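Hello forum,

I keep getting stuck at the same step: I have a sequence, I want structure tokens, and every attempt I make locally crashes halfway through. Rather than fight my setup again tonight, could one of you with a working pipeline run this one for me? It's a single chain of 460 residues.
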Amino acid sequence: MEKYAKRFRTDFPRLLIFVLLVMQAFSVFAKPVSWNYLWSLRFRQNQETLFTETDNSFYVEIEGVTPDSIQLAVNSLPHNVSVVSSKKETVMIKSGNGQNEKYSAGTRITIWMKFLKTGFYKISPIDLVINGSFYQIPFNPVEVFENPRFINPQISVSFNNLNIPSKRKIAEAYEGQHIVFTVNVKYANSVKNISWNIPEDSVFKKLREFNFSGEDSFSTEFKPVAVFDWQPLKAGNWTLPEIFVTAVSYNGTISDIKTPPIAFKINEKKLTDSKPKQESPFAYAFIEPSNFDKNVSKPEAKNYDILNLIELHKKERHSIPFFNSAFKERRQIELSVGLSPSGIEPSVVFFAMMFCAAFILLMVSVLLFIFKRKKTCAIFVSLFVTFAVFLSIYGYHLFASRGIYAGGTMSPIPEKTAPTGVTIQAGSVVSIIRTAGGWMYIRHNDTYGWVLSENVYLIK
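Reply #2:
Ran it on my machine without issues. Output:
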């Protein structure tokens, strides 16, 4: 007996400490959860986009509670929404940032739901009973999209240089006008091929084709595929050329889609007769311009066109001439916005190659002179002089300060209050003569004037 009593006296303090620790742990989880804390919680969606006909999960994490202390109940759900399953699990929940970052034990509740139709849904809060207390945790409104496995690619047309109201059934233009339009596609993973039917008595060309491949992430927005320029040459009733696109949907199926038919009424281009009538030598001064010509929108370079032109000029400047596509792409953009195509951009790489060649000719000429090969030396000296003259001319054009003008008018003096002068089209290449403060004195063709420096993008 004495032996058991001694053992009891030794083990009892340890047992008491263990019981107290267990009770302390249970007391932490058993204490009621703060209403303010739970009020701040929301069920959040696990995936970025919710789709129909698939399991979409929502979750919430609650600190300081165990899974077995929570009972949940789902209230009435909107039409076409059903609960598939739910799960409770113990997780470590992160709180705070930086030095205040810490982790605490808690419970994650995950609920899987299925939606039968697309649209916006407002889901009723989920009822929770935590340690005998009743709470509700709401959902944020959600938007559900059509499952990509069941969506066929769609196509649309947008006009770059025409303002066509969406309610107008027939668009209007005049004969010979350039109609620039972009073909857009959505719900497609990639585009395999583009083809078209060209109406008679018209000019048609593709200006640009965009890279449309590897679009694994789902998107509900149209993305551009190609830009075209169509020019009807006769007046009458027309239909926009049909564009056929072979697209691969998200489920892997290949679909052939074509642009919707868009009717055009092409009017005759009215030319003002500048020849005065015999009865009055000043009759031409009273001729009213055509109202249709006033309303015709001309193609203009947008901000993204100017940025593309700058990048293509720089790319062309730092590559070997005739061995890159920058010149061709730049020319297409300039034509699409109504600019007169500028010449080939001087190449830094080509200048360096020619400089090395001239230096080699000079070294060979010196060696031939030292070894008294007069005839051969004369030939190499002639070649060196030719290269040197060419380099001087080429270097002058290469290092001349040039830029892309954002558009506007040139002033005769560098002041904002100065009378306006000649208007320069946005996207035009200008030569920079000198600068003064926030102004630049530029030349465009045979026209000179002052413009704000912020409106000129340097070609470097």
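The first helix runs from residue 2 to 30. If your local run keeps crashing, start a new thread with the error log.
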